[in-house]
Amino acid sequence: xxxxxxxxxxxxxxxxxxxxxxxxxxxxxxxxxxxxxxxxxxxxxxxxxxxxxxxxxxxxxxxxxxxxxxxxxxxxxxxxxxxxxxxxxxxxxxxxxxxxxxxxxxxxxxxxxxxxxxxxxxxxxxxxxxxxxxxxxxxxxxxxxxxxxxxxxxxxxxxxxxxxxxxxxxxxxxxxxxxxxxxxxxxxxxxxxxxxxxxxxxxxxxxxxxxxxxxxxxxxxxxxxxxxxxxxxxxxxxxxxx
Length: 242
Ligand code: BTN
Hints:
This protein has about 240 residues and is α+β, with helices and mostly antiparallel strands. Helix content is about 25%, strand content about 35%. It has helices at about 20-30, 75-90, 150-155, 160-180, 180-190, and strands spanning about 1-5, 10-15, 35-45, 60-65, 95-100, 105, 110-120, 125-135, 200-205, 210-215, 225, 230-235, 240. The termini are far apart. Biotin (BTN) binds next to helix 1, strand 4, strand 7 and strand 8.
């Protein structure tokens, strides 16, 4: 048990499993509530955003934290990205940065990602499953040229447990501020962002594209894009730099 001001984290470490998201759902259903963190040594069915798979061999960090809804739920993925990037910065002194909404990059290459899934009771969110995958000591997938791992960037092995511990402490501090000071999450995200001030193209689930200048992130985590004078807000999508 790791006692933080927002949540006492109860960390459950598993071996090779399908997906920590699926395992976290099962643990929730059997009464393990907010604060439960499922950590897997590896995943055979790791899930990424938009139904993509997340390559999860041993050596990486794969976790799902069950959260009660704190404040604006749209900020959870951004908060997760900020916490991962800051943990990398503090532990490895490497300038990790963020691509909207929640890709964690080193030198423009993806080292980690965040997946937030809400569980609903009627029209109310009852929990959020925050999934985090970080390439630590595992080689990044060779078929993704824009992927990297922290050990490759660092030129040294990473202490996975120490990284997990620091990440949970950082998440805890941000969770505490989600309700009282959401602007802190947004300003931290802006400081770490590689997205703002760039020309971008965001494709949403139905294939519609929004192209323009990324101006800011809104209170609900959406991206504000200036499309030649017309301001558009993008709630979710896949972003590419133009
Ligand atoms: C992304 O597409 O960038 C998000 C990737 C999230 C992967 C993590 S690994 C731990 C957790 N379990 C999963 O199946 N997915 C998330």
